[in-house]
Amino acid sequence: MSQNMAYYNDGYNHDFTDEDAMRLVRIAASPEYRPHTCRWIDSGTACDGVIQGLYFPTHMRECHSIFVVGQDSPRFQCQWEGCSDTTLASKDILMRHIQERHLLWRWNCPNCGMVFLGKVSRNAHHALCGVSNK
Ligand SMILES: [Zn+2]
Ligand SMILES: [Zn+2]
Ligand SMILES: [Zn+2]
User: Fold this and answer.
1) How many whole angstroms separate alpha carbon 30 and alpha carbon 63?
2) Which of 57, 84, 115, 131 has the fewest beta carbons under 10 Å from its own?
3) Mean pLDDT, the chain, as a whole number?
4) CA 66, CA 86: separation in Å to the nearest integer?
5) Residue 33 CA, ligand 1 centroid: distance in Å
6) Known Gene3D superfamilies for this protein (predicted)?
């Protein structure tokens, strides 16, 4: 029997498995640190700018005028190329829509590698993950 066949059922250290390597790669590829291509349609053409995930909200504000100008709750419509969503959303909801639908952000639990569509649900899971050592 190969030692590489050992799975996570005893709570002790294992050799560095393919699964570990995959997990590290996924964390390094966290959407916040990956470059994304912006396909926001402005004046008839797609932006095409490449922006690191972390700076996407800044980019949307500075290049596409998605910002809050002292109104209580300004609403924006998604102008992403090919997007058929015509609902008006607040800036925060629009940013989440862009991240989830157009940039296809995925969030991993650093603990178990489970994938989530939203950072909030990932964080909620992560808070509990590993607490009970099952
Ligand atoms: Zn853009
Ligand atoms: Zn959209
Ligand atoms: Zn987890």
Assistant:
1) 24
2) 84
3) 80
4) 16
5) 17
6) Classic Zinc Finger
Rounded to the nearest angstrom, the distance between the alpha carbon of 29 and the centre of ligand 2 is 23
Cα 122 from chain centroid (whole Å): 10
Percent of the chain that is helix, strand, coil (3-state, to 5): 40, 15, 45
Tokens of 65: 């005028």
Distance CA 112, CA 84 (A): 35
Any idea which residue has 């966290």 for tokens?
30
Residue type, 89: A
What six digits make up the tokens of 67? 């910002």
Phi, psi at 102, each rounded to 5°:
-105, -35
Residue pLDDT, tens place only, 24-56: 655 556 778 788 999 999 889 999 999 988 899
Extract the runs of DSSP E, i.e. beta strands, from the chain. Answer: 35-37, 41-42, 45-46, 50-52, 76-77, 88-89, 107-108, 115-116
Ligand nearest to the CA of 87: 2
